[in-house]
Every structure is written in structure tokens, then in C-alpha cells.
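User: Design a sequence. Structure:
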């Protein structure tokens, strides 16, 4: 049988206009799992393989996580392509992560032929209904000549306001139809700025404060924005707290850095937020995690004076009513704050110093319980920090193991932390692959619990196929630690559904050509990690840890 395509048609097909649109928007990498529903797009990508690398993941969830991580690293929409039905449902985890993490991303889904809609045909899904409240915009291309318009709008929506995911469904018959309108770029909007009169009010509130706290989070942090917020915090000597899994916005070595508002929060930082008389929130939505279920910052009327900068108007006042609210990008917010004249001697110097001291105390490795066995994860995370360069990228998914990472590792440069604020397991390995491909000259480490790693272990094949150089640390305690922790709290001594029987992780990694070791003692970690770093390729370390050590200072009886 001879297969033909329309590459010689007078007008390009909609599938080729889509690929032209990707090129115009600067896309250089697409993550996918191929499907027969978008063959025309795959064929068009073949013609531009020198411009756009096609990375084929082994699971749609892995592909979507890779695209989301790429969006975090670049600030541009990460691109994922999957097929209809099961492909789309499995990729939905990445859409949810992008939505909660405010990450620009576009998911293109091959779709059934448009003349079959509503018949419940093979793999049919109504994507507008499925993704309607999950993505910023969901659309199905019904006319080939509208492909350029829709893709340009998708890029605009993904990055404007609060960034997030867009889902575009591509009926297979529309993809091969001729398109009369050529690809074109979306229009870049001029950024809004905070007015001088409003910033004068901010200055007055800051000057009147005695216990202020700068809270930073969200996405869209450029190098200039990070420099400006650092300059503001230093000149005003104001304590800075990063929200959940946004610790890399501020260099953790700064004298003003006070820690992270997250799961496993420092009790001293919790009390400091509660005692603050002013909260200056930049970029963050101030979620339930950062506010400890709205107990540290009350909703809707905070007990602190709240000044809130956010790029999306609907997020300002959505949960908390600020005294002053701004709809501006984090770059504009940081620039305006950096321009404020600082007091000669802030009234809160002692407040900031004690916040820093509390962070240093909390991040110090605690004494180990005499009953503990296996690798001390606190020591391992500290040794990993000391061994890695400051621009190393560290990724993780979800699980109690991440509490050790966030508490004892030190983030020293921007865009070095890739972790899902939505709490999705399995994110770490796909994200690390995306990071290594985006920054091939930098060290990349994925830290994953055994349950987290087993969500997408097959992506080791993707790493090997595309030459990703990274280290995977599998924290093996033989259980779903977070669930076991809650289980012991509410149903003590009644283990149900939380045990994990995993594979031989070393043999599994070696089957993909990786260097791999099993580490059972704390004193052996530094040497094993050094060997993993020296290896030019894929490496995996299995760390056997004590299953009873459920948190750094909490053991199961």
C-alpha cells in the first residue's frame, strides 16, 4: 500500500501550518508519544527536525511532565503532543500540574475525524468538557484555515496574566485539509506597571511596619526580577520567605532568607508569619499550603496588612482581601519595589536577624535517633548540596522524602528547583530529563521516593535514548511514606495499602546502560555520589532508608 500526503499541495495543510506556527514562536523541542491521529503533524516535524527536536517519551504522563518542566525552565510554553482518548487522559496529569504551578504549556491532542463527533467512536473524548476547568483555554480546531489563528492565541493565553496550560484538539481530517491562512506570531503585550501614587502608598505602609515579611512565589521570575527582589530585600533588610517549592527564587544564603512556607514548615517561621504586622506578597497566590490552611493568613480578611502583587487580576482578592492590590507581572513588581527609597535604619533589623537564625537552626542536620537504620537522608542532602555546583538543577515529585530535600538542601541560583506544587507523584524523573536536554552542560539530580520513581521508571529509556545526563536518587523505604504517616496518625498500627515491593533498582537502571549503586550506610553516600557525578551519562543511586523515620525528627513507634 502506498501512503500519500499533501506536502505538494498549492496551500499547506493545517498540520503543516501548526508546525510553522511552532517555529515562528521559537519552539525548539516537542515532547510526545506518537499516535495515528496526528500523523500529518509528525510528518511535518520530520521536515524541520534540524530546528525542532522531537523527544518521544514512553508514557504520555512522562511527556506532559517533561513539557511542563521545560515551560518552567524557559518561561515559554512547553509543548506536548499526544493522541486521542487514552493518550489525552494520561497526559492530563501534566495539565493539572501546569495549572496549579502557573506554568505555560500547550497540549496538542490528535482527535477523531470531525464528521464522527458524537457517535462515541474509537477513543472519542469531548476535550472541552474534560479539560474545561483544568486548562486556561480548551479548543478544537474545526476549520483548517483557522489553525494559525488558534495556535497564535494558544501561545498568547499560555503566557498572559497568570501563565498556565492550553489544550488544542486536532481532528485528523482537519489536519490534512488545506489551510488558506499562513502561520503568524501572537502579539506581545506591553507589561503593566504599578503607578507612582500606588507605590507611594506601599512605601508608607512599609515605613510604618515593625514586623514585615516578604513572601515570594509563583512563576514568571526573570533574572532581572530576581535581581530586583534581592536588591529590595537587602536594602530594606526585610526577611524573605519563599512559598511551597519556590525556594530557588531567592538565594538561600542571603542574610534575609528566612525559609520556605511549605509542607514540613519550620515552626518558627510559622509563628513569624502569624506574628507579622505586614505581608508583602509578590507573585504568589498565597495558597492553603503557604498559609497552613488559612490559619497563618486568615481568609478573607488577613490579620496582617496585606499588599499583594500578582499578574492575574482574578487572583488579587480571590481568597484574601489585600489593603493594596496590583495586577502586574513579578518583573514589574520587583522593579517597582527595588526603586523605593529604603530607610537608613529599618526598625525590624532584630526581627530579620532572628528570622535568619531560626532558618539556620532548622536547616542544620539534627542528631540521629539511636534506633535509626540505613542512610541518614539529612546528611545525604547536605552532602549533595556541598558537592553540587550552585547552578545544579534538582527535581523531585511528591512524598515525605521531599521534606528532607527542601529542609536540608540549599538553593542558590534561579531555576534550579523543579517540583510540582500540585503534589503530583512521578514528576521528578521526567522533569530531570527535560532539564538535562534544556541545559546539557549543567548537573541535574532527580530525588524520588521509591513510590514516586515507580510512577514513570520507563522514562529511563527516554533519558538513555536522548543522551540525558542526570543522577537519579531513589529513596527506598519500602512504602508510600506520606500516606503511611497519615495512616499512623488516624489509624495507628493498621497498615493498609501503603507497602511497596519494588524491583532491583540497580539492575533496572543498569538495563538502560546507567551506572548504578545501592547505598545502605550514611558514610558510603558521599563516595557513591562522587562516582555518579563523575560518570558521563545516566546514573542511579538507591538509598535504603529507615521506614520508621517518617520525618526528619519524627519516628513511627
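Assistant: Done.
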Amino acid at each position: 500500500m502506498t501512503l500519500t500526503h499533501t506536502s505538494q499541495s498549492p496551500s499547506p495543510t493545517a498540520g503543516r501550518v501548526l508546525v510553522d506556527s511552532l517555529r515562528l514562536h521559537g519552539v525548539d523541542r516537542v515532547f510526545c508519544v506518537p499516535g495515528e491521529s496526528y500523523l500529518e503533524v509528525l510528518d511535518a516535524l520530520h521536515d524541520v527536525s534540524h530546528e525542532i527536536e522531537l523527544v518521544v517519551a514512553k508514557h504520555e504522563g512522562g511527556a506532559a511532565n517533561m513539557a511542563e518542566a521545560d515551560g518552567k525552565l524557559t518561561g515559554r510554553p512547553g509543548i506536548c503532543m499526544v493522541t486521542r482518548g487514552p493518550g489525552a487522559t494520561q497526559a492530563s496529569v501534566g495539565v493539572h500540574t501546569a495549572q496549579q504551578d502557573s506554568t505555560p504549556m500547550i497540549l496538542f491532542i490528535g482527535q477523531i475525524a470531525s464528521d464522527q463527533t458524537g457517535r462515541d467512536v474509537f477513543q472519542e473524548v469531548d476535550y472541552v468538557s474534560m479539560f474545561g476547568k483544568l486548562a486556561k483555554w480548551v479548543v478544537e480546531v474545526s476549520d483548517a484555515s483557522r489553525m494559525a489563528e488558534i495556535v497564535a492565541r494558544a501561545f498568547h493565553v499560555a503566557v498572559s496574566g497568570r501563565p498556565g496550560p492550553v489544550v488544542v484538539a486536532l481532528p485528523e481530517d482537519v489536519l490534512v485539509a488545506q489551510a488558506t491562512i499562513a502561520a503568524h506570531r501572537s502579539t506581545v503585550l506591553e507589561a503593566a506597571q504599578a503607578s507612582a501614587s500606588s507605590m507611594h502608598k506601599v512605601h508608607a505602609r512599609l515605613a510604618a511596619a515593625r514586623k514585615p515579611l516578604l513572601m515570594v512565589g509563583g512563576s514568571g521570575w526573570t533574572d532581572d526580577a530576581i535581581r530586583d527582589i534581592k536588591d529590595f530585600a537587602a536594602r530594606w533588610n526585610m526577611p524573605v520567605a519563599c512559598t511551597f517549592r519556590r525556594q530557588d527564587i531567592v538565594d538561600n544564603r542571603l542574610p534575609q532568607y528566612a525559609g520556605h512556607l511549605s509542607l514540613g514548615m519550620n515552626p518558627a517561621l510559622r509563628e513569624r508569619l502569624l506574628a507579622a504586622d505586614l505581608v508583602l506578597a509578590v507573585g504568589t497566590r498565597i495558597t492553603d499550603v503557604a498559609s497552613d490552611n488559612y490559619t497563618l493568613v486568615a481568609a478573607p480578611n488577613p490579620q496582617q496588612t496585606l499588599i499583594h502583587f500578582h499578574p492575574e487580576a482574578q487572583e488579587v482578592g480571590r481568597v484574601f482581601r489585600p489593603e493594596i492590590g496590583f495586577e502586574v507581572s513579578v518583573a514589574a513588581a520587583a522593579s517597582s519595589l527595588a526603586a523605593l527609597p529604603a530607610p537608613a535604619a529599618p526598625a525590624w533589623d532584630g526581627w530579620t536577624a532572628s528570622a535568619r537564625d531560626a532558618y539556620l537552626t532548622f536547616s542544620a542536620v539534627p542528631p540521629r535517633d539511636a534506633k535509626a537504620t540505613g542512610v541518614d537522608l539529612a546528611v545525604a542532602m547536605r552532602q549533595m548540596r556541598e558537592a553540587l555546583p550552585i547552578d545544579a538543577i534538582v527535581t523531585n515529585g511528591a512524598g515525605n522524602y521531599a521534606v528532607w530535600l527542601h529542609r536540608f538542601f540549599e538553593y542558590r541560583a534561579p531555576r534550579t528547583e523543579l517540583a510540582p506544587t500540585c503534589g503530583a507523584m512521578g514528576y521528578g524523573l521526567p522533569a530531570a530529563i527535560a532539564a538535562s536536554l534544556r541545559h546539557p552542560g549543567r548537573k541535574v539530580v532527580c530525588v524520588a521516593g521509591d513510590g514516586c520513581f515507580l510512577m514513570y521508571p520507563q522514562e529511563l529509556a527516554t533519558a538513555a535514548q536522548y543522551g540525558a545526563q542526570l543522577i537519579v536518587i531513589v529513596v527506598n523505604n519500602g512504602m508510600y511514606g506520606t500516606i503511611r504517616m497519615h495512616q499512623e496518625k488516624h489509624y495507628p498500627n493498621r497498615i493498609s495499602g501503603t507497602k511497596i515491593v519494588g524491583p532491583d533498582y540497580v539492575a533496572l537502571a543498569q538495563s538502560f546502560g546507567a551506572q548504578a549503586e545501592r547505598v545502605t550506610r550514611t558514610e558510603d553516600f558521599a563516595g557513591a555520589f562522587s562516582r555518579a557525578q563523575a560518570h558521563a551519562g545516566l546514573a542511579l543511586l538507591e538509598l535504603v532508608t529507615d521506614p520508621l523515620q517518617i520525618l526528619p525528627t519524627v519516628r513511627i513507634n
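The CA atoms of residues 214 and 240 lie 5 Å apart. The chain has 20 helices and 20 strands.
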